[in-house]
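Budget justification note: compute hours in this period were largely spent on complex prediction jobs such as the one shown. Inputs:
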Amino acid sequence: GAVVSQHPSWVICKSGTSVKIECRSLDFQATTMFWYRQFPKQSLMLMATSNEGSKATYEQGVEKDKFLINHASLTLSTLTVTSAHPEDSSFYICSARGPGRTRGGYTFGSGTRLTVV
Amino acid sequence: QQQVKQSPQSLIVQKGGISIINCAYENTAFDYFPWYQQFPGKGPALLIAIRPDVSEKKEGRFTISFNKSAKQFSLHIMDSQPGDSATYFCAASGSNYKLTFGKGTLLTVNP
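Corresponding output:
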């Protein structure tokens, strides 16, 4: 089956530093990747959609300069949280779709717990 | 505007019982309705999904019922087990492939 690997699973960083989260599709080519943010006991909120080789499309209210998304290859997308602050602490999850898949072809990563101290 | 409304927020069921979670949507352009299961600290995993041309879909102990005219769909978990204890999310998507999630239901199955 389709597998999406997300790393790291957790990270603690100091306020003001940047953190990069990787999302890899291991056995399929991901033409589209989605990045979500989830606060404790809340639902998943879509942050941005990225297509391979093009700029990411951010949802309303998401700061594109703070959350940098790169989808440079068909198997890798990265989310960089720049100048992180405690309010950026959250659970970040990626999801990937491959070409030619049915509408149901979303595979989620295992998530990254970011804690900014 | 919340496009997918999910209820109840939490649910406690005895082992062997039936768990029922309901969702309602507003956007008639949605044409794909999945249910996800999420354990603490993990990403969501697809349980079962349905398209609007089908009124019911069953996979093992999990069944989706879909009512297009009422714009509602529900998840039934038969013979609920303690291992089913998790948070369940309904979702919907349309031609842009973006998933819109419900707020989630925390299911607890008591042994």
